[in-house]
Amino acid sequence: MTQERQAVSDAIVQIQSAEGGYVWAFGGTVCAFLGREVALLEPDRPRAHGLMDDGEAFAFPDGFAERVRGVSANVWAVEAGERICFPLPRWIEDVLTWGGRWSGEFQPERRQVGSGVDIRSRSGNRIAPDAFPGLVIGTAGFGDDTGEVIGVHLAALADFDLGVRRGREGDYALEAEGPEGGKTPVLYLAYSDRGLNGLRVAFQDAYRVQFSEIYKHHRPVQLNTWEGVYFDHDVDRLSDMARAGAALGAEHFVLDDGWFGRRSDDTRGLGDWEPRASVYPNGLGPLIDTVEDAGMSFGLWIEPEMVSRDSALFEAHPDWIWGEEDQPLGRGQYGLDLRIPDCWEYVYNAAMGALDGLRVESFKWDCNRDLISAPPKIAQYASDLMASINTLGFPTLPIEACASGGGRLSRGYADVAYRYWLSDAHDPDIKLPMLREASLFFPGLVLGTHVGGAVSQLTGRRAAIETRAAAAMLGHMGLELDPTGLSEREAEVLSEAISIWKANRDWMQEGHLLALPHRDPGITALGVFSPDRRRALIVALQCDTPRDSVPAPLRIAHLTGVVRVKAVCLDPHLKRFAKAQPDWLETGLTMDTEHLRCVGLQLPVLQAGRCIAIDISPTDPDTNS
User: Residue 366 catalytic?
Assistant: First the structure.
């Protein structure tokens, strides 16, 4: 080796992700992801391992290596601090990002990397669906199981810029920056040579490793009251809902918005964290007694960093808001300036009072408006508030992160939140594709997926109970409806689905939520696979009109051994819709997983909006997953 090449080699830093994982090798303008057995500088400088030519425009900044650490297999973290900018391998061609809106979160946007900067930006002092703080870059045409890909997630609480820059010489760089005047958050980077599912495994395992204490919390089936009653609270009705939910198998009852102060609609009452006297003259105690007598624990919705113009708190302390009193309002509410010590103390004591006096065992933490002109650290103050409740008062308190639906989906909240609300949309053909996209960065069981009513309150469309139940079984399952209004058939299916979910949740909590590609683009198929790859729970949903009269088999990789395959929560409509359907729907079958991988499982003929849920278990009953 010449002295010049020796100098280049010496300048390269190699950081192991974890035992058995890849090495991220970088230095100057060299960027590669290498297995232990691969020499970094072979004479031919193999492009397959991402080595860049010398002399490109972008270079790693001084001291960069000191900010990088391996988190788990094939995942690294670049610590928070100054603006992040570093070279990328030259084999990248495509970029995948996510935009969206309220009830339309995680909409994928895929394209070739063009010249200049391809950037995602967010302002408004919170994360929101229009710009998820993450992206995937990779080889042309990468898929769920094919291609080299790099996943990037910026653990932002609020404003950020995240993008890929292409230089004049065809070189690439990743750029990330936090809010103006603040630190750039921690950036997580993952590598896979097995497509997007490789990233899913890497990021989901890293989440479990890094946030193990909060992740391992028990995950009860949740009944949330929002779409059951909205603001029309009534103790007798809510008590009936609790008893009916418990009979179905629900374990945790969350009293959503509308329980406090003047809160008869969404324009008033925020900040007055005392039970609404006109509805709860004896406080929340009688309702909590009913919930606990039914065998469930009790949780409460809060939006602590906000105050309504029409509230006792604002009337007493108009000086606690950020900005001017005549600013444009969203939902009639201001943001509280939590930098003011008395304001912080008031909100903290109100939350702690609910926990101490009301037997509250979880908070659903919401945020329903942008804070456009607020100070850049306002989101950090709100997160610190909830963290202090966790660490100083109730260290095991489960907190669900929510913001106008899925607006708090970020690892930035992972130290506080044990679960994230994915979306206010419960239509299965909207929710299941969202779950597929979110699973690139989060384990399925931290994503709240609830069964909504027969008629969607978002779209007005009707979905079968079998489809609604199945679509909720791959995340953290819950109910978003009034269970007292269910038909006998709906109650039977929901009870079965909840029982199946409970029976599988322990191994699902350690498993991987993976996508299963199908030749029909109208079919969305996902499954949770156990760590030992002997079990799986799979849902295949026909989102759009079928492309073929008879669907192609669903090829199922990621399994090993001989397994038993059976349909669960079977929709009786499937037999009425087609004269001939696969026999295994009724009888189940035993298959070698090599057959499932190479040939696949014949799917039934499905109408748009119908699905099949598939339980796969080892033939050996003594197998532990």
Answer: yes
Q: Which residue has the higher pLDDT, 256 or 351?
A: 256
Describe the strand order of the beta sheet including 187-192 as a list of residue ranges: 68-72, 75-78, 187-192, 149-154, 134-138, 94-101, 104-112
- Residue 537 CA to residue 565 CA, distance in Å, equals 10
- Would you say how long the chain is, in residues? 625
Q: Are 434 and 449 in contact (CB under 8 A)?
A: no
Sheet holding 611-618, edge to edge: 512-515, 523-529, 536-542, 611-618, 562-568, 589-592
Active site residue 424: yes
- Which pLDDT belongs to residue 36? 59
> For residues 7 and 256, what is the distance between their CA atoms, to the nearest angstrom?
62
H or E stretch covering 291 = helix 285-293
Alpha carbon of residue 125 to chain centroid: 20
- Output the six-digit token pair for 204: 């989901």
pTM for the predicted model, two decimal places: 0.94
- Catalytic site residue from 424, 427, 482, 615: 424
d(CA 571, CA 582): 14
> Under 8 Å CB-to-CB from 196, ≥6 apart: which residues?
136, 142, 143, 144, 145, 149, 440, 515
CA-to-CA distance for 68 and 133, rounded, in angstroms?
A: 19
Q: What is the dihedral of CA 463, 466, 467, 469, to 10 degrees?
A: 110
Q: Which stretches of 439-540 are DSSP H helices?
A: 465-472, 488-510
Catalytic residue chosen out of the listed positions 366, 370, 482, 571: 366
Out of 67-76, 177-186, 559-568, least confident range: 177-186
